[in-house]
């Protein structure tokens, strides 16, 4: 029995009851009130003789139960220093597949760091908000940064010191403002926490130690910087120098990150590491064109098939706690979320055998398909110098991202401003060379060639001028249209996921309508311009886009011979992308094999760690010592059983991965 109070208890709950609700709440996200009400109705469902209200006592006991379970499962009961000696993040369930020097990496792992890098995924969840009820003084947390939440006092001191240290940065990307719709919602006006910022391991979707913190005014850099620093510096070994950080606004957030960290005084633990910043695959299309190359998981080397969206998938499960979280005090909310994150991590640990098996089966099949496709493409490139030059260019960029990017078109694109300037220069040259007095432009009727086609003859030179202007204008309009369509799509997705309430929905619809109007304007402008192009095309013998053929040429014999200009650029980019796809799937197979090895070694390490805890003497009664030793042996056996299941499930994996197609 667990008593409701430590002094003169009169109410208690059985361990079986507390354990039952603990599991049910973790699985179904049912609130304590619903569970208690169901028990009360089971006792008396008529209202004739209702039981006394023990709901507050039940919630106190449940909160203490969660906390004690977390401490026990992390080995605090075997530490002679007790709870007072608990280190930040030491109660978190660690990801066995992530790299942990000294636990699941070989002694010489630093000599081959490319497949030992750490993948992190950063994001904010605006569903897990908390209203302005209670306070830390009235409702303190039992857990002080021992698991997933950062230590609250240090975090708040950081926010007080640096909240206004940097002005708001002006976005240079489409996606930045779209993702900041959380600020538009005005949630911070009526809430103490508008959501939480989190950092997960991007490969396995597990919450990291000391990686969660409350947000006060949306997704501010000062909050996300501290949360990122907390988990990287406190729970990524100093030797772990190669880190990939995925964030949906990485293009903006990473720009001045080192300036901010130097101002915080946190840079000394970060500057010795190598960071690669990327944007999650689902969010990338909403960004501007330049981000699609510089921050793409598909193109960067040694990231395998990581998508960076794991943290979003975790949000979907934890959002079911949102309704009960809103009315909680700050301490209770942090304790419950720490328990929820721990349960989520543990379920993923216990399912690693089937998870990795499914990933390997898919990766082997996809590797074969994409490597063969690249070899077929490469075989028809009869001009070996082109392919070799592209290969050298790609490898130079992969080794140094500051080198020329092979995925970017090197020839300048046609723009309306450029054509206007060129025509103005040609007109000025013609006027200078002409001896006749020019007719005043303001007295000439504005009849463009496309407007008089079919009614009277027109100079081919004038038709060519209008064609060039319209062609460039159409390209500009299409670029605008693409950006507005991406932005509209992302706004709709954001609204469906995060916006709740009449006021917030009205504001979101207003913002979306502004973008919708821009889409309609773009469409109207394009139709007008396209009509002019159609009118001019027949007279000028222009070829429409529908009659241009390029894809079959790439796969035909002699595809690389004599390719110049735009075609050469297109061939190079398509060749580089085909190579990148083959490389990413090959890397995925290599990384999965490495991660499975890590899992087995980590389970053996933690089993040995529990056996060491059994030998520790905390100086208590013989009965207590007997129980602590038995518990340590049980935990060690659980880990070894999980390892055994993984070994049996993965016994054929080395054979599947043996046949490997090499990629140039």
From TrEMBL:
Residues 2-47 form the CxC2-like cysteine cluster KDZ transposase-associated domain. InterPro entries: CxC2_KDZ-assoc, KDZ. It holds the Pfam family CxC2. PANTHER family: CXC1-LIKE CYSTEINE CLUSTER ASSOCIATED WITH KDZ TRANSPOSASES DOMAIN-CONTAINING PROTEIN, CXC2 DOMAIN-CONTAINING PROTEIN. This is CxC2-like cysteine cluster KDZ transposase-associated domain-containing protein. The lineage of its organism: Eukaryota, Fungi, Dikarya, Basidiomycota, Agaricomycotina.
């Amino acid at each position: 029995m667990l008593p409701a109070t430590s002094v003169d208890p009169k109410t208690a709950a059985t361990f079986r009851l507390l354990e039952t609700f603990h599991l049910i709440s973790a699985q179904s996200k049912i609130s304590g009130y619903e569970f208690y009400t169901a028990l009360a109705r089971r006792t008396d469902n008529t209202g004739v003789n209702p039981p006394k209200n023990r709901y507050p006592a039940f919630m106190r006991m449940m909160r203490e139960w969660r906390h004690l379970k977390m401490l026990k499962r992390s080995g605090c009961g075997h530490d002679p220093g007790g709870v007072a000696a608990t280190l930040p993040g030491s109660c978190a369930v660690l990801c066995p597949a992530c790299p942990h020097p000294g636990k699941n990496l070989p002694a010489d792992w630093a000599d081959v760091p490319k497949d030992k890098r750490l993948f992190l995924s950063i994001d904010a969840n605006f569903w897990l908000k908390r209203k302005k009820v209670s306070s830390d003084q009235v409702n303190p947390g039992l857990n002080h940064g021992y698991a997933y939440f950062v230590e609250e006092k240090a975090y708040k001191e950081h926010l007080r010191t640096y909240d206004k240290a940097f002005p708001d940065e002006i976005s240079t990307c489409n996606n930045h403002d779209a993702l900041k719709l959380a600020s538009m919602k005005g949630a911070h006006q009526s809430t103490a926490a508008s959501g939480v910022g989190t950092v997960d391991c991007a490969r396995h979707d597990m919450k990291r130690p000391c990686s969660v913190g409350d947000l006060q005014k949306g997704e501010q850099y000062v909050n996300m910087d501290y949360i990122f620093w907390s988990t990287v510096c406190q729970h990524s070994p100093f030797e772990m120098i190669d880190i990939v950080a995925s964030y949906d606004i990485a293009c903006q957030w990473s720009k001045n990150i080192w300036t901010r960290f130097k101002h915080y005084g946190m840079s000394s633990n970060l500057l010795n590491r190598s960071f690669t910043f990327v944007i999650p695959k689902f969010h990338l299309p909403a960004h501007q064109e330049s981000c699609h190359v510089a921050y793409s998981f598909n193109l960067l080397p040694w990231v395998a098939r990581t998508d960076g969206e794991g943290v979003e998938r975790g949000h979907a499960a934890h959002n079911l706690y949102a309704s009960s979280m809103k009315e909680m005090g700050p301490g209770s909310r942090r304790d419950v979320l720490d328990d929820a994150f721990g349960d989520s991590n543990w379920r993923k640990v216990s399912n690693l055998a089937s998870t990795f098996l499914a990933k390997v089966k898919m990766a082997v099949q996809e590797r074969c398909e994409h490597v063969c496709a690249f070899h077929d493409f490469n075989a028809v490139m009869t001009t070996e110098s082109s392919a070799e030059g592209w290969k050298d260019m790609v490898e130079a960029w992969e080794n140094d991202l500051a080198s020329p990017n092979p995925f970017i078109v090197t020839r300048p694109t046609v723009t309306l401003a450029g054509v206007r300037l060129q025509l103005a220069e040609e007109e000025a040259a013609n006027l200078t060379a002409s001896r006749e007095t020019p007719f005043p432009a303001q007295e000439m009727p504005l009849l463009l060639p496309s407007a008089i086609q079919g009614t009277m003859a027109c100079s081919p030179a004038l038709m060519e001028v209008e064609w060039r202007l319209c062609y460039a204008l159409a390209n500009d309009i299409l670029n605008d249209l693409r950006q507005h369509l991406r932005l509209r799509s992302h706004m709709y997705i954001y609204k469906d996921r995060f916006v709740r309430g009449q006021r917030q929905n009205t504001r979101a619809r207003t913002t979306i309508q502004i973008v919708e109007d821009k889409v309609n304007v773009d469409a109207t402008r394009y139709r007008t311009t396209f009509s002019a192009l159609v009118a001019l095309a027949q007279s000028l013998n222009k070829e429409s886009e529908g009659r241009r053929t390029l894809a079959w040429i790439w796969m035909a014999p002699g595809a690389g011979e004599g390719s110049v200009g735009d075609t050469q650029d297109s061939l190079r980019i398509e060749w580089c992308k085909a190579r990148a796809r083959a490389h990413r799937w090959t890397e995925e197979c290599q990384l999965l094999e490495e991660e499975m090895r890590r899992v087995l070694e980590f389970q053996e390490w933690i089993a040995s760690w529990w056996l060491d805890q059994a030998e520790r003497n905390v100086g208590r009664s013989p009965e207590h010592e007997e129980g602590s030793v038995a518990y340590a042996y049980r935990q060690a056996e659980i880990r070894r059983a999980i390892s055994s299941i993984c070994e049996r499930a993965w016994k054929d994996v080395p054979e599947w991965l043996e046949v490997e197609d090499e990629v140039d």
